[in-house]
Structure formats: C-alpha cells, structure tokens
Specification:
Elements (H helix, E strand, L loop, with lengths): L1 E5 L3 E5 L3 H11 L7 E6 L3 E6 L5 H10 L12 E6 L6 H8 L3 H10 L2 E6 L6 E4 L14 E4 L3 E5 L2 E4 L4 E3 L2 E5 L20 E6 L2
Parallel strand pairs: 5-13
Antiparallel strand pairs: 1-2, 2-4, 3-4, 6-7, 6-13, 8-11, 9-10, 9-12
Length: 202
C-alpha cells in the first residue's frame, strides 16, 4: 500500500491489483476513518476524499489499521438488466472464446457481476466477476460512435455505454435501460458495489 497526497483534500492509495482495491474498499465503505467524505475505487487505486479539516496522517493510520476483507463490496442492490444479444461483435467474441454465440450469452447472463469502479464517462461502470471464458481483448480499432445502452466486453470486464461515445469494447448486445440520467437521484444506476444480473430478452 502506497499513500499519496492528492491536492488539499485527497489521499490516493495505490494497491497491487483490483482484488486488493475491492478488499480494502469493502471495509472502508462500511466504516470510513473520521474525516473521509467519499471513496472512489479504480483498477489499482482507492481515492479518499477528505474533509479539509481532517488530519491526513490520522486518516492514513486508520486505513493501515483495518483488515481488508476478501471479496467485492456489495451494496445489496441487485440491478436486473434486460439485454437483446445482437451486438456487432458477438460472433467475434464467440470465435475468440471458442464458444457458440448462445454459449457466450448463457455465460454472460449466468454470472452475477459487480460494479468494481466507474470511469471513462459519467455513469460507466466496470463490471467484474464474470466467467474467465469471457475474458477477451478490446477491439484492435475503436469505433467513433457506440450507441447508448450498448453492452460490451473488454479484458475481464463487462460494461454498458451510458451515452453515445467512441469506444473499443467488444459489443455483444444492447439494453433499453437509461444507465445515466441527470434528473434522477442518484444519476448512475451502476455505482461501485451494485450487483448486476443480465437477462436475455427477444
């Protein structure tokens, strides 16, 4: 664990990997040290937003004193995501994995995914916990426009594009859910710790 000061009111913790981030986040999100106002997990870091009056050294000592818990944090929320599996890259994913297209769909819908962290665009959640058979590389060439609601795979993650944007994920389907909406509280459906179950629909 490496601690780095981040501006006037932040503390960035560098960790070995995503599993280490999730293990520490799972504990701190339930019982944050005094002075911590928000926690932002990423692939190999955990950012602690601090009250400007917080004692940074005390916060660091408090973090070092906790015992990380194995397993991803779960908020208790389970989001059911209906998906039409007709993505432009579904056939390529099947070829990359050695599965049939229906087997790709079956494995994607059988897993319970968890939002590990957010990034890339507002509302975009990196979903972890999928089967190892679905680990595939990003596309060699990114698309200039990916429609909102597109469901994709990249590396060990699955994700849903919250709005139209460029993107290089392997697209396997689409959902009609509004993943990000500014007039909703909270705006993002995919927040760290939320569990996700994909469901195939015609």
């Amino acid at each position: 664990m490496r601690f780095l000061r981040c501006a006037d009111s932040g503390l960035l913790i560098e960790l070995a990997d995503l599993e280490a981030v999730q293990a520490l986040y799972a504990v701190l999100v339930e019982d944050p040290p005094e002075g911590v106002t928000d926690l932002v997990p990423a692939a190999r870091t955990l950012l602690l937003h601090l009250d400007p009056r917080a004692n940074t050294a005390a916060v660091e000592a408090g973090v070092r004193a906790v015992e990380p818990r194995d397993g991803a944090p779960a908020s208790g929320d389970l989001l059911q995501v209906p998906v039409v599996y007709d993505g432009a890259d579904l056939a390529e994913v099947a070829e990359l994995t050695g599965l049939t297209e229906q087997e790709v769909v079956h494995r994607h819908t059988s897993a319970e995914w968890t939002v590990a962290f957010g990034g890339f665009a507002p509302g975009f959640g990196y979903l972890a916990g999928g089967p190892p058979e679905l680990v595939v590389p990003r596309r060699t060439e990114s698309r200039t426009k990916v429609p909102p609601g597109s469901v994709g795979l990249a590396g060990a993650f699955s994700g849903i594009y919250p709005r139209e944007s460029p993107g290089g994920w392997q697209l396997i389907g689409r959902t009609g859910l509004e993943i990000w909406r500014v007039d909703r509280e909270p705006p993002a459906l995919l927040r760290p710790g939320v569990r996700v179950q994909f469901r195939e629909v015609p």
